[in-house]
């Protein structure tokens, strides 16, 4: 049986980046995946247009127990490097808010771009292939699969996170890490909508469909983006972002009117229309249905002239720091990513190679490095995949 220079398990974003780079450098590469085709998450990403990177991607855009770990790989293969690849491939793209870059046409273009160097460099693919067992024998790794045994001098685990099991996400990478004695940071769903139960769920359901710009904070992190009320709870970019920092039992603090001075606003309106109802005036700033719900928690139906100073202070607190306690999240069923994964203490930040097991690499989402929303997770897949390929 031939021994490949490298076996890569996982034909997703990180695995393909690693495979193409290594193959072009003359390495013999075998990519194994249990899915019937490569890059399935790439194809559905960004609503089919793939938010393939973020122009401003930097270490501060990632969550990890060790926030410094991602620095080296991001510096060696940056957003600018990936944009360069995209431009050289002639893929038209555009920038949306906050530096997010999307394909003009289709995510298929990114997948084709990643597969081209794999083909050119002669990387072999075995799809529809279950890996049942991985072991080390002499100085080789042996992957036992439903299509036979394969040997590699190096083994790269690029099996991603746990999100969207329906699409083939598994805990395989984490189990392999543990089987080789590597520590794993407990995984949780990230970039995921919040859910509520009981009375709070019923109250919030009345607001389903409303979207507004807010600043949400939890565990010393703040995100200012849109929030969307859904039939199950809260979604929208602001909620997805903060979900990566939220843990069960935590309360969200939501500024419904960021940048607006409620005291000054009420004073001005009181001067102009003292007999106006508070709810009527607040409806100039917020959707009516939301104002009605907030009135239940606030001073209730009152004329502006009758509002006490204390009531205005209470109102400002309610509107600038609305406290909501989710009972949970929608979990891996809809989460965009997994927070946690292979402990970065176990890996070289320069090469992604295991410190304990030479020749064993972990790249992409299986590692405890998780990007914020906005193209950062793919950038981590590209950067970590490239770092490993250069070291193999
Ligand atoms: P990825 O999940 O891409 O690939 C893992 C591969 O391993 C898959 O091909 C899988 O089949 C295979 N695999 C898993 N278990 C296996 C096993 N046991 N045996 C064999 N093979 C196995 N990010 C971003 O930056 N911009 C965006 O627009 C989006 N959009 C987006 C939309 C949706 C709906 C989701 C769910 C996620 C995103 N993301 C995103 C996140 C992004 O898709 C994700 O972070 C990367 O795909 C991670 O790349 P990996 O290569 O690590 O895993």
TrEMBL record:
Q: Which residues form the RsdA/BaiN/AoA(So)-like Rossmann fold-like domain?
A: 5-390
Q: Which UniProt keywords apply?
A: FAD, Flavoprotein, Membrane, Transmembrane, Transmembrane helix
- Per UniProt, residues of the RsdA/BaiN/AoA(So)-like insert domain are 189-337
Looking at the UniProt entry, the stretches that span the membrane are 6-32
Superkingdom to which the source organism belongs: Bacteria
Q: Does the keyword S-adenosyl-L-methionine apply?
A: no
Cofactor(s) in the UniProt record: FAD
Q: Per its record, how is this protein called by name? A: Aminoacetone oxidase family FAD-binding enzyme
Q: Give one Pfam hit by family name.
A: HI0933_like
């Amino acid at each position: 049986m031939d021994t490949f220079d490298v076996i890569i398990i996982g034909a997703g974003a990180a695995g393909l980046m690693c495979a193409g780079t290594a193959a072009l450098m003359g390495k013999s590469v075998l990519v194994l995946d249990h899915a019937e085709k490569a890059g399935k998450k790439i194809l559905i990403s960004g609503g089919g247009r793939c938010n393939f990177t973020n122009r401003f991607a930097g270490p501060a855009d990632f969550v990890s127990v060790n926030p410094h770990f991602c620095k080296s790989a991001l510096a060696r293969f940056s957003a600018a490097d990936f944009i360069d690849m995209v431009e050289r491939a002639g893929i038209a793209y555009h920038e949306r808010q906050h530096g997010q870059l999307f394909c003009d046409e289709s995510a298929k273009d990114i997948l084709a771009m990643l597969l081209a160097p794999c083909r050119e460099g002669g990387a072999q693919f075995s799809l529809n292939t279950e890996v049942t067992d991985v072991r080390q024998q002499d100085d080789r790794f042996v992957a036992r699969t439903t299509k036979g045994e394969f040997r590699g001098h190096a083994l790269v685990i690029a099996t991603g996170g746990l999100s969207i099991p329906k699409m083939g996400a598994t805990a395989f990478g984490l189990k392999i890490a543990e089987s080789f004695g590597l520590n794993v940071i407990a995984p949780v769903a990230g970039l995921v909508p919040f859910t509520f139960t009981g009375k709070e769920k019923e109250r919030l359901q009345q607001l389903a469909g409303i979207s507004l710009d807010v600043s949400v904070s939890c565990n010393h992190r703040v995100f200012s983006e849109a929030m969307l009320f859904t039939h199950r709870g809260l979604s929208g970019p602001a909620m997805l972002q903060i979900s990566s920092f939220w843990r069960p039992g935590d309360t969200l603090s939501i500024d419904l009117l960021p940048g607006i001075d409620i005291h000054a606003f009420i004073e001005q309106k009181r001067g102009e229309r003292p007999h106006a109802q508070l709810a009527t005036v607040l409806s100039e700033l917020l959707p009516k249905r939301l104002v009605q719900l907030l009135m239940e928690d606030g001073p209730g139906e009152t004329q502006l002239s009758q509002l006490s100073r204390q009531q205005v202070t209470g109102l400002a607190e309610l509107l600038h720091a609305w406290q909501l306690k989710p009972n949970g999240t929608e979990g891996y069923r809809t989460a965009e990513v997994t927070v946690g994964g292979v402990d970065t203490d176990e890996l070289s930040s320069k090469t992604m190679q295991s410190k304990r097991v030479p020749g064993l690499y972990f790249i992409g989402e299986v590692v405890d490095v998780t990007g914020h929303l906005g193209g950062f997770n793919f950038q981590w897949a590209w950067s970590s995949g490239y770092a490993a390929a250069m070291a193999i």
